[in-house]
Specification:
single chain, alpha+beta, three-stranded mixed sheet, binds zinc ion
Length: 668
């Protein structure tokens, strides 16, 4: 697939160290922890300030979002909905000892199944392993009231849970296998990979310059020996869920902010009603063109990672609204783009005479659903159709309340205490890391990549395999250099001239040490963003050695980072920026290669092992996801909605049980 839609924003990848200046009141970010999962909450700041019309619009869009939940479960595996119903019935009917090992293992298993939207892990695609006995399970099934007995499904569900070889992997990508027959998803039924490929080859028009996304909203199966597509639409597959989505979209369209947005919603309704993929393309074009509305949403069959052939879209929805304060931040930076360019520490020959900053869009998520729930992306970059992107552009946004929740939840996981020995620095990080992380991302994305120019005749690909590492380093250095500039205080983006030190410390700590926790023992650094951070940090360590700018410190057998001279570190960032800009502008491949090979790749095995050991001791969950807030309409005496309230108190288990009870049209 050429388009990555689950964006990990370029520079914003932070693991574990950040906290927020907004952490004023007590908000319990962590709601559950089991297996390899931590479940968080997120706030929806700014919701209260929206107009009543916007709140109603969001409310109906969130109802449309939750209404599609069952679709994804069934797409993931044809027994998932029956399994979920049975497990929930056992769970709510259970009258035995809740402290028993079997029950605790059963509860953990159910929580995993909820998180995976089915019996497979959301990331590894492997089936979950039950920690409870088959005897326990059988006894619980027998104890169910007669009408809740799964009857003919009982045998296959038992196999699904206890036979590791049965439907072992949701998506199989192993070379040489029939990827469709060996994948346990429900996007294809009773057909082989060769049959499916033959079918699509026959119907695809390869001369079409604006092709529809074949297979995006269908299950492929055989009827009377013939391959057919069964569309997901009103009157087709998943009709009861789609009807409910359409009904709520219809309500939402009454409160559209403008005609453009209403046209988007109505086109989506047409697509759900007809299943016509041409209508989906028309919808996508309308959607990408609607940039004025504050409220926005996606709702449909979007990403195709769940299909080994990359065709059918997993159902998902995210409702959001523009974060005006954060978007103001990127506008201010963009408006000053020329000032930053003209003052950058690079040879004036390599500067742009006229630079235009990019305005990054920052949004606040109001609900996550389907494939975006509970595990969720931190950015959206859509639509996926290449010809629409080329002709009409795309929307690329970061979801700041989600990244904030990650950062807040990481506070208190012990990471800072383990790796940042200086209490004053920890306090500075608590106060300024979230703000400076965001500014770093803004400067990197809005200005860094856009700055500088090539000398005439220089091949933009001259740096070849090292191009992306050096490009990320260039953008990061631009951001790091300006984070310490008084200009940010003058522009009202920072209120403390020491704030940048929090970002500098974290950056160097990460680049020299803590990012190694994501590398397997014995391996080198390979990924471009990680190489870039290592390059910058190792280079600054070496070039500043004579002045002891950065030092390693070992206490009680543990290695720490000490930064002695922040102003000098800033100068070093400026010097390296000048050099990397020169390398890029002149296309100096050898110098670029030497920088990468000398500073960005090789890992010290002893330090690596130490970081892995220390990190393992912290027991931080590798995967995180979210529960949603609860939106409730407030009615007046005439039955009119006068407000929508938002509540954050619902926990993981009650939310899952409520969704299954109230938003499950496909199981009733
Ligand atoms: Zn970047």
């Amino acid at each position: 697939m050429s388009i990555v839609t689950k964006t990990i924003v370029c520079a914003a990848l932070t693991l574990g160290t950040t906290t927020s200046v907004m952490a004023n009141e007590k908000f319990n970010y962590v709601t559950d922890r089991f297996a390899d999962i931590e479940v968080l909450r997120y706030k929806v700041p700014g919701f209260e300030e929206l107009s009543l019309n916007q709140k109603k619009l969001i409310y109906y869009l969130t109802e449309a979002a939750i209404s599609g939940r069952d679709i994804l479960w069934d797409q993931n595996n044809k027994y998932n909905l029956a399994l979920r119903t049975l497990l929930e019935d056992i769970y709510t009917n259970y009258k035995g000892d809740k402290g028993s090992e079997d029950f605790k293992a059963f509860e953990k298993y159910l929580k995993q199944v909820w998180f995976g939207n089915g019996v497979h892990h959301h990331y590894s695609m492997d089936k979950f392993t039950p920690g409870f006995s088959q005897e326990f399970f059988d006894a619980q099934v027998r104890a169910l009231p007669a009408e809740k007995h799964p009857a003919e499904m009982e045998e296959v569900l038992r196999r699904l849970i206890f036979d590791p070889a049965f439907m072992a992997k949701r998506v199989n990508q192993a070379e040489g296998a029939d990827l469709i027959l060996t994948s346990a998803n429900n996007l294809y039924d009773g057909v082989s990979q060769a049959e499916v490929e033959g079918y699509y080859n026959a119907i695809k028009d390869t001369t079409d310059l604006t092709p529809v996304s074949y297979g995006l909203n269908t299950r492929v199966t055989k009827v009377d020996g013939k391959i057919v597509e069964q569309p997901y639409r009103v009157g087709g597959l998943y009709s009861r869920a789609i009807e409910r989505i359409v009904k709520n979209l219809g309500e939402a369209s009454k409160y559209a902010e403008n005609d453009k947005q209403r046209a988007v919603i109505n086109k989506l309704i047409e697509y759900y009603t007809t299943g016509d993929l041409k209508a989906f393309d028309d919808y996508s074009i309308l959607w990408v063109d609607d940039t004025d509305s504050q409220v926005d949403f996606i709702n449909g069959f979007i990403e195709s990672y769940g299909d080994p052939l990359g065709m059918t879209g997993a159902w998902e929805s995210i409702v959001n609204f523009k974060n005006l304060a954060a978007s103001h931040r990127t506008e201010v930076i963009s408006d000053s783009a020329q000032w930053f360019e003209s003052h950058s520490p690079v040879d004036p020959r390599f500067r742009k005479d006229k630079v235009k900053g990019v305005t990054a869009k920052v949004i606040t998520a109001a609900i996550l659903a389907g494939d975006a729930y509970p595990a969720t992306p931190i950015g959206i970059n859509l639509p996926n159709a290449n010809w629409i992107r080329a002709a009409h552009g795309s929307k690329s946004v970061t979801i700041e309340n989600i990244t904030q929740a990650y950062d807040e939840a990481a506070h208190g996981n012990g990471f800072n205490e383990e790796f940042v020995p200086d209490a004053a620095m920890r306090e500075l990080m608590d106060k300024y890391l979230f703000v400076t992380d965001n500014l770093h991302t803004d400067l990197h994305e809005c200005l860094g990549h856009a700055s500088g120019r090539l000398l005439p005749g220089v091949d933009p690909d001259a740096l070849k395999a090292h191009g992306s590492t050096l490009e990320e380093a260039r953008a990061d250095l631009f951001a790091l250099y300006y984070l310490a500039d008084p200009k940010l205080i003058e522009l009202g983006l920072l209120d403390n001239e020491d704030a940048y030190k929090a970002q500098y410390y974290k950056y160097i700590l990460n680049g020299l040490m803590t990012q190694l926790m994501r590398i397997e023992p014995g391996k080198d650094v390979e990924e471009a963003h990680m190489r870039n951070r290592k390059l910058i940090s190792e280079w600054a360590l070496e070039k500043g050695a004579a002045d002891r700018v950065i030092e390693y410190e070992v206490k009680d057998g543990k290695t720490y980072i000490k930064i002695n001279d922040y102003p000098r570190l800033r100068e070093l960032f400026g010097e390296l920026l000048g050099e990397i800009q020169r390398i890029k502008s002149e296309g100096d491949y050898e110098a670029g290669r030497d920088l990468v090979e000398n500073y960005a790749v090789k890992v010290d095995p002893k330090l690596h092992k130490e970081v892995l050991d220390r990190y393992a001791h912290l027991d931080i969950a590798p995967y995180k996801g979210f529960v949603n807030p609860v939106y409730k309409p407030v009615y007046d005496a005439n039955g009119e909605i006068v407000d929508i309230t938002v509540d954050y108190t619902e926990d993981y288990v009650p939310q899952m049980l409520r969704y299954s009870r109230d938003y499950s049209p496909l199981t009733k």
